[in-house]
Amino acid sequence: MEIKFCGAAKTVTGSQHLLTINGKKLLLDCGLYQGRREESYRRNKDFLYNPEQIHSVVLSHAHIDHSGNLPTLYKKGFRGNIYCTSATRDLCSIMLQDSAHIQEKDTQYINKKKSRKGEKLFNPLYTISDALNVLKQFKSMPYQNKFYLDGFNNKVAVTFFDAGHILGSSQVLLEINDGGKKIRFGFTGDVGRWQLPILKDPDFMGDVDYLISESTYGGRVHDKATEMDNQLQQVILDAYQSGGKIIVPAFSVGRTQEIVYSISKLYKEKKIPHIPIFVDSPLSVNATEVFKMHPECFDDETAKLISEGTDIFGLSYIRYVKDVEESKSLNSFEGCCMIISASGMCEAGRILHHLKNNIEDKRNTILIIGFQAEHTLGRRLVESVNNPGMEVNIFGEPYPVRAKVIVLNSFSAHADENELQRYFNYFNRKELKKIFLVHGEIDMMEALKANLEKMDFKKVYIPDYGETVILN
Fold first, then answer.
1. For the chain, which residues make up each domain, given as ranges?
2. Which residues lie closer than 8 Å to 228 by C-beta, 6 or more apart?
3. Range 2-220+413-470: architecture per CATH
């Protein structure tokens, strides 16, 4: 048995890990790499393997950096099954189509500029047709229900465990018979946090022989999740006093629902004024509908609020914007309001237009509530906190950052340094032969590696992009 690390190796996005078991190929995740535009396009277009040879994909969750390149996989010949939870399948059904739509529209917008300059034009990675076709290959399975992968001769069993990261997110346990050798192999996907709103806490998948683990915040401590409401309250009160807009780049799945949930509680407790709140993302509207379809993923507090009649997604007082013309009209909105829009890393979609129109006004606030990968516009906005007046490029044009940029990491859905240690404490050090750290920038990986070694885990390894490791 061997592993080839085809994405999220010494970087955060583009999760893809290829397992070869008894000569057959299984792919864990197939995410989009996000970063510099041309490098991203190249990495996403050119796989480190032949898609036609992949027998199955096991998908940890629906975030685009884990699922977003599945249509390209289909486009290049993959025809196997894609296994995931039912909530992940429902989210992917809207997210992959949305990703294709955004690529087509953004490519069209950028190509207009390139055409004027006589530059080489881009093509979208995939189309809505590719997204619709790959969705036919999804098979959904419930949590903690062992099943066998088709085409592996009953040699690979899979069980999903709740990862507590986003709706439907899972840790993956593989029980493998590799030429008579029994192997328990784990993949964390993205590990969530304890006491996050809406979702259940992460489960324990049981002891394993080998584990691929994310390391996004392996060396950083978040503010407590219980501080989310208080911190958001202060941001809103400050903006209300200045009369400015609050622009929130938010992932359509997870972060948008969490901030709306927080606002719902603050309104109910009369801790903030009733300012206009716009969720300007068709995907967020549809994703919220998917959330409502999956109460089995909710924690006890959320279930109790719903049973009491609390409108946890703010449908009665938050304006969900679908229409493009209505989105454009927000540019001329006067007074304090909050605009929540995708994408969460500011790399595509309507958020770019809102940033372009509001970033130069010092009355406004740009509120960052999610992880921002290296070389993304979102990361440059975070860096501007310590570089007042620095310029960022939006649609290829420079804009000085005059709006206030605030980062609230209490909203993060990724386990931090302490929470990852809590997660690993469940594992038996004697049974866990090797840990592979992925999905993190190198400083975070090295910090987590050092912590795990202090916790008496013997073999912790950080693989390179494209590296192959044989499991003895």
1. 2-220+413-470, 225-411
2. 197, 258, 262, 408, 410, 411
3. 4-Layer Sandwich (3.60)
Structural contact between residues 201 and 194, judged by C-beta atoms closer than 8 angstroms: yes
CA atoms within 13 A on the CB side of 171: 25
Residue 48 CA to residue 45 CA, distance in Å, equals: 10
Give every CB contact of residue 469 below 8 A, 6+ residues apart in sequence. 2, 3, 4, 5, 436, 461, 463
Q: Supply the pTM of this predicted model.
A: 0.86
Element containing residue 187 per DSSP (H, E): strand 181-187
Q: What is the pLDDT of residues 112-155, one digit of tens each?
A: 877 888 888 778 899 999 999 999 999 999 999 999 999 899 99
The pair of structure tokens assigned to 146 is: 């062992």
Alpha carbon 334 to its chain's center: 32
CATH 3.90.226.10 fits 225-411, yes or no: no
- Tell the residue number behind the tokens 């592993």, with chain if given: 3
Q: Tell me which residue has tokens 């130069």.
A: 360
Alpha carbon dihedral 56, 61, 63, 67, in 10-degree steps, equals 0
